[in-house]
Amino acid sequence: QVQLVESGGGLVQAGDSLRLSCAASGRTFSGYTMGWFRHPPGKEREFVGAISRSGGNTLYADSVKGRFTISGDNAKNTVYLQMNSLKPEDTAVYYCAASTVLQPSIRPGYYIYWGPGTQVTVSS
């Protein structure tokens, strides 16, 4: 069992940066592929990015590629989502999730543990 808790969300202006954290407890997250998803208001949940358990492979949605970066700190059992050049369309509740699949995946069904989410609001 893995418990995930996101933090770092907030209200920022377009162009600003924000770093989200996902702290894992119960089991070390290094045994899981970690993903970030978001749920924009009035839209379906969507994939943001993911990192393999080794940290060697990452996968990003086209909408965030070049602006968002996922990294992990095994010592702190924490995964980060660095978000730069934020846009109003990045406004969403952001979730981290853990998967036992070896490689990063865009499919939410592959992720078995989810955090409660953190709100990110980007004003124009």
Explain what you see:
The chain is mostly beta strands and 124 residues long. It is built from no helices and eleven strands. The strands form two sheets. Strands 2, 4, 5, 6, 9, 10 and 11 form a seven-stranded mixed β-sheet that branches. A hairpin with a 6-residue loop joins strand 5 and strand 6. The radius of gyration is 13 Å and the shape is globular. The mean pLDDT is 95.
Outline the secondary-structure elements.
Blueprint: E1 3-7, E2 10-13, E3 18-25, E4 33-39, E5 46-51, E6 58-60, E7 68-73, E8 78-83, E9 92-99, E10 111-114, E11 118-123
Residue stretches low in confidence (pLDDT < 50, at least 5 long) are none
Whole-Å distance between the termini? 40 Å
- Strand-and-helix sequence, N→C? EEEEEEEEEEE
DSSP strand content: over 45%
Write down the overall mean pLDDT.
95
Sheet having the most strands: 7 strands, mixed
Number of strands: 11
Radius of gyration from CA coordinates = 13 Å
The percentage helix is under 10%
SS-derived structural category: mainly beta
Number of helices: 0
Shape: globular
What is the gist of this entry?
The protein has 124 residues and is mainly beta.
Q: What structural keywords apply?
A:
124 residues; mainly beta; seven-stranded mixed β-sheet; four-stranded antiparallel β-sheet; globular
